[in-house]
Amino acid sequence: MPSSTPRITAIETYDVRFPTSRELDGSDAMNPDPDYSAAYVVLRTSQEDEPDGHGFTFTIGRGNDVQVAAIRSLAPHLVGRDAAALAADPGALYRDLIGDSQLRWLGPEKGVMHMAIGAVVNAAWDLAARRAGLPLWQLLAEAEPEWLLTQVDFRYLTDALTPDEALGLLRRGRQGAAERTALLRAEGCPAYTTSPGWLGYSDAKLTRLAERAVAEGFTQIKLKVGADLEADRRRLRAARAAVGPGVRIAVDANQRWDVDQAVQWVSALREFDPYWIEEPTSPDDVLGHAAVRRGVAPVRVATGEHAQNRVVVKQLLQAGAIDIFQLDATRVAGVNENLAILLLAAKFGVPVCPHAGGVGLSELVQHLAMFDFVALAGATPERVIEYADHLHEHFTDPVRIRSGRYLAPTAPGFSAAMRPAALAEYAYPDGEFWATELAVEAGPPRPHPGP
Amino acid sequence: MPSSTPRITAIETYDVRFPTSRELDGSDAMNPDPDYSAAYVVLRTSQEDEPDGHGFTFTIGRGNDVQVAAIRSLAPHLVGRDAAALAADPGALYRDLIGDSQLRWLGPEKGVMHMAIGAVVNAAWDLAARRAGLPLWQLLAEAEPEWLLTQVDFRYLTDALTPDEALGLLRRGRQGAAERTALLRAEGCPAYTTSPGWLGYSDAKLTRLAERAVAEGFTQIKLKVGADLEADRRRLRAARAAVGPGVRIAVDANQRWDVDQAVQWVSALREFDPYWIEEPTSPDDVLGHAAVRRGVAPVRVATGEHAQNRVVVKQLLQAGAIDIFQLDATRVAGVNENLAILLLAAKFGVPVCPHAGGVGLSELVQHLAMFDFVALAGATPERVIEYADHLHEHFTDPVRIRSGRYLAPTAPGFSAAMRPAALAEYAYPDGEFWATELAVEAGPPRPHPGP
Which Gene3D superfamilies does the record associate with it (chains A, B) (predicted)? Predict the structure, then answer.
């Protein structure tokens, strides 16, 4: 074996937490005080001049250490792997991890272990794109359809999507790819912003941020709802007054309601013309989403940030349960599974509007959305990518938003890398920020309430 | 505060692994070499003479350390709790844990974190039953319906089961409870055995164990299938010859198939009269199970050991996807969620035949099945509890099987406690067994295959 063959020599993990709960950035009806966090992983290669791979799972604070432990448990599958072989076929890593039958028991294919697999699979794609010298969206958009097919796991999907059908979708998707690439480079992809609508913001802040969003060129904003109906009506009225009739206002209930309650609550908001209702009920409730959709039509139904794997997505589409699918970059087992999900959505003609309310989710998901635009679903008018205006400064290749649109990344990789200074300062519990915070708080961070 | 009020002072966790892969006990088409393991927890109380609470999550080896880490992350919710208050209302703990919005993000209500909640909730019920001096089945069977109702979370269920309906089921369920309790104490509950049918056993071993099962009084056995159709036909023929026409033979594919493949494979087994096909496809595929059921009728369809939470169970029932639900004691968030699941099954008239292919699952699930028999669904002829004949010697209150039936436990508690000697010997990686094993193996336990 030549001594110059680069191998994965180590995985490094970081428990990074940003104190967003202080300002209630990110607050909603189910998550009143999230601390946006990343269980972050680096696949280190054996040579200084060879690129590493970066990835992470997004969490909201407690439990991020468990998520990190899950990523670390995958080390035996990673250390020693040939980096070139990994880059040439990230699907082989994906299959090895999904196929580890003992780890599988902890899901299967859901929750902490599945998201840990996603973090390392995404890191492998970051490494692959860096080695190729391309931003990931471009690597995917220029890949041969036959090769992309090898990256997809069709197990449990064949009653809705066969490999042959997927190949057809990929081939048709490439028609006009050159033109759409030029358009993408010139104009980017449309975004919508959730920043005005966090539940913990005052009405004055909501109004100010909504007006700013319109001024910045956004054609859609999103409001959190679901804690208090009268407050929701008041806030939606204020938002509609701030943006006018031509700007879309999506609303998001973060899983608060049962089916009947969802239908009633959305009806009570209808006079303000909500564009979609997001996560009206349990993310696991395919039949429930379908029932809500029937009840709230023509208001659209959107879900996906907690869709645990491609099998749930398949059923949401088979059941006609949603109008919009909200792909998430770190919820499932990485790019490979998200390719399957994009193919399912394309088969069923449901537009994908990715979720990005989190730290680093924008950075990752823009690549998947841009691949979808250039080389799969093409130009679908309803397609928008979520954007929230915080925490981007912690990334070495942060998203670039201009006039309400994501500009196409140009740097090689998946835009996943965080600045070392951020990793150091917000490492939990020993980074500078938390070491100070936790010393100040008297006693344990979360005193037990007692009887 | 009186100094004699017992409180939870600590949680102790143990990563315990039994080397079942050596004998291929537990092997099936998806899990060829499981090491039956427990992420085990003890809620210690502040006083020597006050009972502790024991619980665990069942896993099959790798990742058991991650499962333990998840349980440990719940310590702030537990340490300091008044033990009497906990015993009087385990639902309060359940609600606190499910309602921790930051931990919730890691599911929600699925996978590693949800099962960790299940382990500690079960430990709380073990503590409650020990304090009451009753086996858990009896505590549940004698509890007031109004109180049991408070232990159930109806969120996301109300389109299928309302609190009022549940109260009605519980009240009706108590009619005849005294008679059924007497019957239970005299005769126990029917079991079926999976021991003959592990995939890795030779045909001779299968035949021998099948004949033994019939001699011991079992009226149903189960065979693992799904890896090789010709082998499955050969083994099923041998099993049918061994047990004769009057003994039920269930078959279990452990999620191996897609929908169409499941229908075809089961058809090819039909001449041997399989009683049910278990886990024919992804446990997340409600619509898929319904399609399989339509295709294989009149062969029954069973699933449940990987049903992640009550929302999935609700949909399996709403969609008419199953004939039998296979409740699992450690997959969901403990007794509280399993109460909801038993109520759903009773509402839809689907018999519950609990899953117990694991370590300690029999010990736990017998209590839930016996409660169901005495005080909820009553005497349903199809109701059988799985039994596998291994590892019971590690428990202080092991199951008692006589003439193919589970005898009712009499010791206080949930039968969850393992012998300290077992915890010490099979602790991973430092217990006597594994310390020796791992020293003998050259290099890391799972060398990377490499290109």
Answer: Enolase-like C-terminal domain, Enolase-like, N-terminal domain
Residue B410 has pLDDT above 70, yes or no: yes
B224 is catalytic: yes
Position with higher pLDDT, A39 vs A440: A39
> Which among B106, B156, B287 is the nearest to A258, CB-wise?
B156
Rounded to the nearest angstrom, the gap between the alpha carbon of residue B12 and the centroid of all alpha carbons in its chain is: 22
CB neighbour list of residue A76: distance below 8 Å, 6 or more residues apart: B444, B445, B446, B448
Contact B34, B26 (CB under 8 A): yes
* Amino acid at site B37: S
Q: Does the pLDDT of residue A2 top 60, yes or no?
A: no
Return phi, psi of residue A450, to 5°.
75, 170
pLDDT tens digits along B52-62: 999 999 999 99
Tell whether B186 is covered by a domain.
Answer: yes
Q: Using a CB-CB distance cutoff of 8 angstroms, which residues of chain B are in contact with residue A69?
A: 65-66, 69
Residue whose C-alpha is closest to residue A314's, from A281, A279, A280, A350: A350
B3 contact partners, CB below 8 Å, separation of at least 6 = none
Question: Residue B134 and residue B397: Cα distance in Å, rounded?
Answer: 13
Tens of pLDDT, residues A82-133:
999 999 999 999 999 999 999 999 999 999 999 999 999 999 999 999 999 9
CA distance A135 to chain B (A): 26
Q: Residue B8 in contact with residue B86, Cβ under 8 Å?
A: yes
CA distance B118 to B98: 10
Query: Residues of B with CB below 8 A from A115's CB?
Result: 106
How is residue B260 written in tokens?
């169409």
Distance CA B408, CA B415 (A): 11
Q: In terms of DSSP bridges, do strands B220-224 and B189-197 run parallel, antiparallel, or are they unpaired? A: parallel
Cβ-Cβ contacts under 8 Å, A27 against chain B: none
- Amino acid letter, residue B78: L
In the set B110, B289, B314, B355, the catalytic residue is: B355
- What is the extent of the structural domain holding B314? 174-418
* Lookup result for tokens 């030779």: B202
Assigned domain for A78 exists: no
A222 has catalytic annotation: no
Distance from the Cα of A310 to chain B's closest Cα (Å) equals 10
Which residue of chain A comes nearest to B155, CA vs CA?
A: A258
Asked if the model's pLDDT at residue B270 lies above 90, the reply is yes
Q: Which residue of B has its CA nearest to A158?
A: B258
Residue A386, classed as helix, strand or coil, is strand
By C-alpha distance, the chain B residue nearest A85 is: B451
Rg of chain A in Å (alpha carbons): 21
End-to-end, the C-alpha distance of chain A in Å comes to 65
pTM higher than the cut 0.90? yes
Of B62, B79, B108, the CB nearest to A102: B62
Q: How far is A12 from chain B (nearest CA, A)?
A: 17
Provide the pairing of β-strand B189-197 with B385-387.
Answer: parallel
**Chosen from B68, B102, B293 to mutate, greatest number of chain A CBs within 10 A:** B102
Task: Compute, in degrees rounded to 10, the torsion defined by CA atoms A422, A423, A426, A430.
Answer: -140
Collapsed DSSP state (helix, strand, coil) of residue A10: strand
- Look at residue B194 and tell me if it is in a domain: yes
Here the ipTM equals: 0.95
Query: Which CATH number fits the domain that encloses residue B317?
Result: 3.20.20.120
d(CA A36, CA A56): 12
Distance CA B357, CA B198 (A): 10
Q: Which residues are bridge partners to B222 per DSSP?
A: B250
Q: Is residue A254 part of a domain?
A: yes
Burial state string for B30-60 with b = 16 or more CB within 10 A and e = fewer than 16: bbeebbbbbbbbbbbbbeeebbbbbbbbbbb
Cβ separation of A112 and B70 shorter than 8 Å?
yes
